[in-house]
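TASK: fixed-backbone design
INPUT:
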């Protein structure tokens, strides 16, 4: 019989600790494992194992390469397997800046599936800090919170991914106004994810989650993107089009598009790259554009059986007789968005009938460099 495992992620340490403590108190025989990465840049990690009343063990773990994946592979998984026979529930208390996806995929992997059963991925959030932290442009290493020596991620980038990947969100701290504002923010960023208080945590000992299905909820080709919504001052708007984008005009518009909202994401296609599904991901003024693989319409039909059912279903919903599943689908969220201006700007970037996109592609240094790497 496999032992249930719940991941508790979150940049907000006090909120995360409160959620872990509540889980330990609610289920006798549960054990929490935490890896303190404060000195990971020196190749040192501190492992702490505790139950609801005391610390069971502490140990310094030295890694050949100071990184999260090394910690998971070399220490976390073996420790969970060792603890599993004597625990009713295993709680992985993730370090502040760790994104849960890689850990979930490791725990849900075939090598430990008979022993460990991933049942929930929770992200704990401080209601007083959440709205402001989503607008912060600092890198984690500038704040002394990196998860590896080479960590170049931004705080807002990590926080948004922790929110959007989770199967449940835990809101803690702040006052009543903070709580209400944070709930409105989460309604826009993760509208389908349940939000709980520490006193009302969900059941976390159910059937196993499939990491592939968790990934499909956030991957560009299959992501469950938010819909149009307005909640007091917060606005989410969806922009869609079937026409290709002119790379030069879109590139010139990027700065305004990114600064117009707090969070934006989605998929798009350029006239110069009709075969590539491109992913747009921006938060707190930082934007990433990446090649997310081919559009289904760009693949031979013999290859369609090789992609997931969710990918085929998403393509079918977007299918057009002329363009196949190629679509512009971008979602922007922020306070008091000028929706008309945003849509007009994006519309102006579309290729006009009979227009040639030319040969210059300002996105080439970004996209082609990543392909080579």
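OUTPUT:
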């Amino acid at each position: 019989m496999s032992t249930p495992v719940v991941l508790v992620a979150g940049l907000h340490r006090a909120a995360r600790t409160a959620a872990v403590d509540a889980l330990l108190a609610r289920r006798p025989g549960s054990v929490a494992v935490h890896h303190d990465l404060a000195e990971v840049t020196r190749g040192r990690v501190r492992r702490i194992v505790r139950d609801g009343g005391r610390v069971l063990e502490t140990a310094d773990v030295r890694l050949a390469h100071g990184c999260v994946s090394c910690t998971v592979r070399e220490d976390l998984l073996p420790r969970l397997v060792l603890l599993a026979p004597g625990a009713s529930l295993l709680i992985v208390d993730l370090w502040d800046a760790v994104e849960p996806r890689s850990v979930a995929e490791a725990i849900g992997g075939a090598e430990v599936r008979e022993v460990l059963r991933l049942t929930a991925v929770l992200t704990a959030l401080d209601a007083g800090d959440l709205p402001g932290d989503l607008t912060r442009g600092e890198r984690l290493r500038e704040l002394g919170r990196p998860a590896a020596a080479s960590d170049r991620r931004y705080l807002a980038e990590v926080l948004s991914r922790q929110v959007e990947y989770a199967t449940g969100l835990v809101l803690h701290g702040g006052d009543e106004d903070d709580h209400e504002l944070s709930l409105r923010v989460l309604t826009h960023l993760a509208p389908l994810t349940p939000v709980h208080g520490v006193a009302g945590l969900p059941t976390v000992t159910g059937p196993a989650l499939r990491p592939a299905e968790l990934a499909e909820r956030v991957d560009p080709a299959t992501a469950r993107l938010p819909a149009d919504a307005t909640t007091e001052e917060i606005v989410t708007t969806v922009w869609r089009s079937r026409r290709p984008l002119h790379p030069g005009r879109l590139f010139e518009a990027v700065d305004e598009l990114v600064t117009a909202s707090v969070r934006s994401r989605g998929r798009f296609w350029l006239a110069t790259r009709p075969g590539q599904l491109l992913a747009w991901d921006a938060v707190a003024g930082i934007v990433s554009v990446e090649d997310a693989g081919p559009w289904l319409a760009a693949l031979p039909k013999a290859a369609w059986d090789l992609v997931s059912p969710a990918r085929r279903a998403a393509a079918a919903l977007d299918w057009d007789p002329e363009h196949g599943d190629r679509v512009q689908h971008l979602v922007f969220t922020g306070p008091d968005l000028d929706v008309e201006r945003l849509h007009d700007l994006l519309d102006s970037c579309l290729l006009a009938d009979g227009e040639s996109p030319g040969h210059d592609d300002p996105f080439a240094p970004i996209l082609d460099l990543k392909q080579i790497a």
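COMMENT: The chain has a mean pLDDT of 93.
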